[in-house]
Amino acid sequence: MAGGKGSRMPIAKEKLLLEYKKPIIIHVIDALKESKCFSKIIAVTSSNSPETKKLLQRNNIELFNSYGHGYVKDLNQVLTMINDPVLVSSGDLPLLDGKIIQNIVKQYNPENIWTSFLITKEFLSSLKISTEYEINFNNQTCCYTGISLINAEKISQLKKIPENFIVFNDKRIGFNLNTKEDYDLLSTT
Question: What is the pLDDT of residues 47-61, one digit of tens each?
Fold first, then answer.
């Protein structure tokens, strides 16, 4: 997912183009490639991220141009056109690597339509990162990581889908860039 506005990070540059040795979105793409788990990698862009789109095109990444109406609507738009198992990742995970992707993919169960990976708020706080989005799961306050495994062939219409959860306390999927403070913290890792 690479088409957001980055509205929680008021900076002049598009958030996914921020550098951590290379642009953040390229870290995510490289981790997906490094995992050797996928036959195809598609970046979902929108009119909200024109410079990110150009960078991805220069790197020969297949693009899906969404409406740019928000993460959930844009994701639903692309999922209606796919009939395969899908790993969804937000484009703002600069510590993502191929090994953690392999571990996540091993959790895939085709019986589950949607499995979201969570991180506990306690672990996220230990990374000095905060989030606005919390969920109570197994008597723990958890946060979404932006990573999901989806059996898209079981999605016939855009309606509420039962969601399964897996808690995976790992900084490689917990450290995402939502604020300028998150980006400043990244430079200390």
Answer: 888 888 999 999 999
Q: Maximum Cα–Cα distance for the chain, whole Å?
A: 45
Compute CA distances 123 → 55, 141, 143, whole Å.
Answer: 33, 10, 10
Q: Measured in whole angstroms, how far is the alpha carbon of residue 34 from the centre of its chain?
A: 16
The hierarchical CATH code for the domain 15-186 is 3.90.550.10
Handedness of CA 117, 121, 124, 129 (dihedral sign): positive
Q: What is the mean pLDDT of residues 52-77?
A: 87
DSSP-based three-state secondary structure for 84: coil
Q: Are 45 and 110 in contact (CB under 8 A)?
A: no
Tell me the C-alpha distance between 129 and 121, whole Å.
9
Of 93, 107, 104, 112, nearest to 24 by C-alpha is: 93
Residue recorded with tokens 């991805």: 56
Q: What does 153-188 look like in DSSP terms, one character per residue? A: GG--SSS---EEEEE---HHHH----SHHHHHHHTT
Q: Is the dihedral of CA 53, 152, 94, 119 positive or negative?
A: positive
